[in-house]
Design brief:
GO molecular function (chain A): ATP binding; ATP hydrolysis activity; transmembrane transporter activity
Distance between the termini of chain B: 31 Å
CATH architecture of chain A: 3-Layer(aba) Sandwich
Number of strands of chain A: 10
CATH class of chain A: Alpha Beta
Number of helices of chain B: 14
Oligomer: heterodimer
Shape of chain A: globular
Protein name (chain A): Putative ABC transport system ATP-binding protein
Structural class of chain B: alpha+beta
Family (chain A): Belongs to the ABC transporter superfamily. Macrolide exporter (TC 3.A.1.122) family.
Radius of gyration of chain B: 32 Å
Helix content of chain A: 25-40%
Strand content of chain A: 25-35%
Helix content of chain B: 55-70%
Pfam families (chain A): ABC_tran
Number of domains of chain A: 1
Largest sheet of chain A: 6 strands, mixed
Radius of gyration of chain A: 18 Å
Largest sheet of chain B: 6 strands, mixed, barrel
CATH superfamily of chain A: P-loop containing nucleotide triphosphate hydrolases
Shape of chain B: elongated
InterPro entries (chain A): AAA+_ATPase, ABC_transporter-like_ATP-bd, ABC_transporter-like_CS, ABC_transpr_LolD-like, MacB-like_ATP-bd, P-loop_NTPase
Strand order of the largest sheet of chain B: 3-4-9-6-8-7
Structural class of chain A: alpha/beta
Number of strands of chain B: 12
């Protein structure tokens, strides 16, 4: 079963009498285990696509199903629950709580779970060691470098074991060396089976993905990634 | 519930994290609450004192004082109640089970052997100790025969007993009141000092007949009459009746002011409440203003905090926080701060209370009521003024918040 299914999804914004299409009749399927890069110039609709994939926004028309659940008609609380249970976010500017330690930041998603889980702390520590920060658990964000902060954010994104990890320009605030480290980490997560969608305008970043979707005027066009020539046999072709 | 507790936990964490905001909020709330605490304590103190005084005065008692309020103010003779008035009152009010005339002289020289003292002499009748619920603890009370026979006998207060007789038994001993030899027949129970600072035990009580003739050189007038009525519930009516009766006897025309004053427990309470009221109003306005200002300080700091922390709100929403999780968190932050402010304010109030007592001899009584009022008010400030910023925080759209951060 596909993880994300978008059917004729449109998103419009109305300013005065003018209706602007951010997404136009998008059909898109993402299967479990994929590593997808969404590229495109600003205003192309890539961020809107990510917001809809991440249940931060709902389509104006069309239908979106995540993990078999139709998100289209959900209210705000239900969307919150979908995010809590199915999605891990990674942002350009990390968005760690400045007054909480790395460990507390990783634990943040557990606070809003409908059903509490045991052993959250030991899982958080495992995740911190997975991203190579086991000795930084009690550091605050301002005591960590940019790359380290983004690793904490990745650990946080994995905390509730989501099916989908969404990364919005995850390396945008980092230098090339650090950025490469972060992308290698995301790749290794993907190799372990995590589904990852990266939104970026950077071809170097997109090159880590096995599938690249280019957005232009709210319409995606598919093309294989340049640098990682992996066959796309596992994935059905997607028509825009 | 679990989510509420975790919201509380997050709120407390944030409270600790944003220290400057916390300091301002707590300080401003504390100032207001300390004023409120003092008010509640002062009001309670005043009521306690009033009821204490009423209790001592007697809820069924009335005091008729000679001289009008106006005449007293300009220092005119305040003797208008005659011995005949007293008898007439006794005839006219059968419900008055005790009716005791009183005349006092202050700073009368008394002596026993080589011991000397100055005290207050009250001339009265046999009902005196009963009318004031003031028992004779040693010896006997004044009798009707003492009064009728104009005998040279006296009840003495505990202070006088100490001054003149030290450790010896005063009963039956003769001492001098001015140049009159008087025999001690009883000692009154120790009463202590009044709120105004009078030592009640520094007095001697003699038959009014003896005192008027031999100490005051007075035939007609008494200072005051103390009346106790059978039914304390009808004091308002008795008061009107006594007033009308005395006005008629004194030939006062409508429009003329009373040439006497009536004092009952009602007046005592009214007087004390009025005294307290002015202070309560003053501190009350100050306190409420301080609290409102504190509320605005809080609201502004929180609004600032909400825009400053939109990134935090965004990420919380992104990882699954619902709108009300955010609302609760910010509301709890506000209430936590104001509660700490309230506690601090109570401590400040308790510390400031004795100063007020020192400055104005004001009865102040701190109880759980002052504490509860402080806490509840401070919580309300947090709730009311924290609501708007918290709602704004809850309304922050996660997408915009994440983008802007």
């Amino acid at each position: 079963m596909s993880l994300c299914v978008l059917e004729k999804v449109s998103k419009t914004y109305t300013t005065g009498d003018l209706v602007v299409y951010a997404l136009r009749q998008v059909d898109l399927t993402i299967d479990p285990g994929e590593f997808v890069a969404v590229m495109g110039p600003s205003g192309s609709g890539k961020t809107t696509l990510m917001n809809i994939l991440g249940c931060l926004d709902v389509p104006s028309s069309g239908r979106y199903a995540l993990a078999g659940k139709d998100v289209t008609a959900m209210d705000d609380d239900e969307l919150s629950r979908m995010r809590s249970e199915h999605i891990g976010f990674i942002f350009q500017s990390f968005h760690l709580l400045p007054y909480a330690t790395a460990l507390e930041n990783v634990l943040l998603p557990t606070l809003y779970l409908e059903r509490p889980v045991d052993g959250g702390k030991s899982r958080a520590l495992e995740l911190l060691s997975l991203v190579g920060l086991e000795d930084r658990a009690h550091f605050r964000p301002n005591q960590l470098s940019g790359g380290q902060q983004q690793r904490v954010a990745i650990a946080r994104a994995l905390m509730n074991d989501p099916e989908l990890v969404l990364a919005d320009e995850p390396t945008g605030a980092l230098d090339t060396t650090t950025a490469a480290g972060i992308m290698r980490l995301l790749s290794s997560l993907n190799e372990r089976g995590k589904t990852i969608v990266v939104v970026t305008h950077d071809p170097e970043v997109a090159a880590y993905a096995r599938r690249v979707i280019r957005m232009r005027d709210g319409v995606p066009t598919e093309q294989p990634s340049g640098r990682t020539p992996r066959p796309l046999t596992a994935h059905p072709p997607v028509t825009p | 519930m679990r989510r509420f507790i975790s919201s509380l936990h997050q709120a407390l964490k944030a409270v600790r994290a944003f220290k400057l905001r916390a300091v301002f909020c707590i300080a401003s709330v504390a100032l207001g609450i300390s004023a409120i605490t003092v008010i509640v304590a002062a009001t309670e103190g005043a009521y306690r004192r009033a009821y204490e005084m009423v209790d001592r005065f007697g809820p069924d008692a009335m005091l008729v004082l000679g001289g009008s309020a106006e005449a007293r103010a300009i220092g005119r003779r305040d003797k208008t109640i005659t011995v005949q008035d007293v008898e007439a009152l006794r005839q006219a009010f059968p419900t008055a089970y005790l009716l005791v005339p009183m005349s006092s002289v202050r700073e009368v020289n008394i002596s026993y052997g080589n011991r000397r003292h100055q005290t207050r002499v009250t001339g009265t009748t046999e009902g005196y100790s009963r009318s004031w619920s003031w028992p004779v603890v040693d010896g006997r009370d004044l009798s009707e025969a003492d009064v009728k026979g104009m005998r040279n006998v006296a009840l003495i207060g505990a202070q006088v007993a100490r001054e003149l007789f030290a450790n010896t038994d005063p009963i039956g001993k003769f001492f001098f009141v001015r140049n009159v030899a008087v025999r001690v027949v009883g000692v009154l129970e120790e009463r202590g000092t009044t709120g105004a600072g009078h030592n009640l035990d520094d007095r001697i009580v003699m038959p009014i007949t003896t005192a008027m003739k031999k100490l005051m050189n007075e035939k007609t007038y008494v200072n005051a009459v103390r009346i106790r009525f059978l039914d304390a519930r009808n004091m308002g009516r008795y008061r009107q009746e006594v007033r009308a009766f005395l006005r008629q006897r004194h030939g006062l025309k409508p429009g003329q002011p009373d040439d006497f004053r009536l004092l009952s427990s009602e007046e005592i309470i009214r007087f004390l409440v009025a005294l307290t009221g002015s202070l309560v109003i003053f501190i009350g306005i100050t306190g409420v203003m301080a609290l409102v200002v504190a509320g605005f300080v809080l609201a502004n700091l929180f609004l600032l905090s909400v825009s400053e922390r939109s990134g935090e709100i965004g990420i919380r929403r992104a990882v699954g926080a619902r709108r009300r999780d955010i609302l609760f968190q910010f509301l709890l932050e506000a209430i936590a701060l104001t509660l700490v402010g309230g506690l601090l304010g109570f401590v400040l109030g308790v510390a400031a209370g004795p100063l007020l007592k020192l400055a104005a001899d004001f009865p102040i009584y701190f109880s759980w009521k002052a504490f509860a009022a402080g806490l509840i008010l401070s919580m309300l400030v947090g709730l009311i003024f924290g609501l708007q910023p918290a709602r704004r925080a809850a309304a922050v759209h996660p997408i915009q918040a994440i983008r802007s951060g």
